[in-house]
UniProtKB/TrEMBL annotation:
Keywords: Iron, Metal-binding, Zinc. Signal peptide: none annotated. GO terms for biological process: negative regulation of DNA-templated transcription; regulation of secondary metabolite biosynthetic process. Binds 1 Mn(2+) or Fe(2+) ion per subunit. Binds 1 zinc ion per subunit. GO terms for molecular function: DNA-binding transcription factor activity; transcription cis-regulatory region binding; zinc ion binding. This is Ferric uptake regulator family protein. Zn(2+) binds at residues 97, 100, 133, 136. Its cofactor is Mn(2+); Fe(2+); Zn(2+). InterPro entries: FUR (IPR002481), WH-like_DNA-bd_sf (IPR036388), WH_DNA-bd_sf (IPR036390). The keyword Chaperone does not apply. Fe cation binds at residues 88, 90.
Length: 138
């Protein structure tokens, strides 16, 4: 198991420090996107700054992507395999459940192309659908 995690980091050109291995292991166990605070709680005791740097490094190297779900805290989720350093392909819809307050990736649901007025250039698209997830729906 540890070997797999280490290989994942090395494949992404990330130096596999003990802390980074722990962070990746934690991310792999999650079913939804997590915030820095979730990570801090999950890896207690841990240093918030070190964790933040690990997440930022993962994001920079194409291992995780960040999601602004409007909750005020940036969430992080593992990328699909085709993300590269400095170039993310995670143009999928994210879903925020109003009941359990979890944010999930919907990787099969792509963000539709949005036609912008002349002179506007898109740099980033974020699409959050809010509602009730399949675990909470009655
Ligand atoms: Zn990505
Ligand atoms: Zn839910
Ligand atoms: Zn996602």
């Amino acid at each position: 198991m540890t070997e797999n995690i280490e290989a994942m980091l090395i494949r992404k050109d990330i130096n596999p420090t003990a802390m980074r291995l722990l962070v990746l292991d934690f991310l792999l166990k999650q079913s939804s996107a997590i915030s820095l605070t979730d990570l801090e709680k999950g890896l207690d005791p841990s240093d918030r700054i070190t964790l933040y740097r690990a997440l930022k490094k993962f994001e920079e190297k194409g291992l995780v992507h960040s999601i602004d779900d409007g909750s005020g805290a940036t969430k992080f989720a593992l990328c699909e395999n085709d993300c590269e350093a400095g170039h993310h392909h995670d143009l999928h819809v994210h879903f925020f459940c109003n009941t359990c307050r979890e944010t999930s990736c919907l990787p099969k649901h792509h963000i539709p192309q949005i036609a912008l007025p002349d002179g506007f250039k898109s740099e980033e698209v974020n699409l959050i659908v809010k509602g009730v997830c399949n675990k909470c729906v009655q």
